[in-house]
Amino acid sequence: MIDIATRLLIDELGQFIEDTTSITANDVVIENIANWENDPNNNLTDKIVATLVNVEEESTMKNRRPTQVNLNGGIDYVSPPIHLNLYLLFSAVPDGVAQAYEIALKRISQVICFFQAKRMFTVKNSPFSTISTASSLSDLEKNEIRLQVELYTMTFEQINHLWGSLGGKQVPSVMYKIRLVEVKHRIAQEAPVIEEIQNNINTTKS
């Protein structure tokens, strides 16, 4: 589900970038920005790069009942799904030409404009995403995709630590938190419905 959620966002962002800048939708890529400086083919240069830098569980969604009624009227014991928050770093890599850094700043501004105008993503409201036509997902799974995007502001210390861990020079970037990516794998064990309670406690007189 993490890859599906990321692809949904990138496809929509890519189309917006193509309509508003000089680069195409193919120049918005999912890749580890740490590979930029060591890339001999410059595959990430002059691109907007989306990098997953953290995954956390949404603690407010943990307390869910482990039972549900199945189609036969019985009770299934099912492990509750995990709801994740994804932290995506969007970086604009300069290409070394004149005013390259200024161009990179403009592209980051376009990323911010896009997510400011559209904060909730579903398959239905994302017509440019390849997820909408993916045969590997059922209609039910597609309908369950619901992503909320919000700007995540880091402190100077966090920024320094992040780019230090990425091992590269800092480039214009912005971080977003993607809320409630659901991950579940259905392994259910059917149990009979409790219809009668028997009391077999014997009492004796002293």
Report the sheet-strand fraction. 25-35%
Q: Given the helix and strand composition, which structural class is it? A: alpha+beta
* Beta-strand segment tally: 9
What is the radius of gyration computed over CA atoms, rounded to a whole number of angstroms?
A: 24 Å
Shape: globular
Mean pLDDT: 83
Cross-sheet strand order for the largest sheet: 1-2-5-8-7-6
The portion of residues assigned to helices is 25-40%
How many individual domains?
A: 1
State the end-to-end distance.
Answer: 65 Å
Count of separate DSSP helical elements: 4
Largest sheet: 6 strands, mixed
Taking pLDDT < 50 over at least 5 consecutive residues as the criterion, the unreliable ranges are: 187-191
Order of helices and strands: HEEEEEHEHEHEE
Brief descriptors of the model:
206 residues; alpha+beta; six-stranded mixed sheet; three-stranded antiparallel sheet; globular
Could you describe the 3D structure shown?
It is built from 4 helices and 9 strands. Helix 1 (2-20) packs across helix 2 (100-117). The chain has 206 residues and is of the alpha+beta class. It has helices spanning 2-20, 100-117, 139-144, 156-166; strands spanning 28-30, 48-57, 67-69, 75-78, 82-92, 120-122, 146-152, 173-183, 188-191. A 6-stranded mixed sheet has the order 1-2-5-8-7-6. Strands 3-4-9 form a 3-stranded antiparallel sheet, with no helix packed on it. Mean pLDDT is 83; it is low at 187-191.
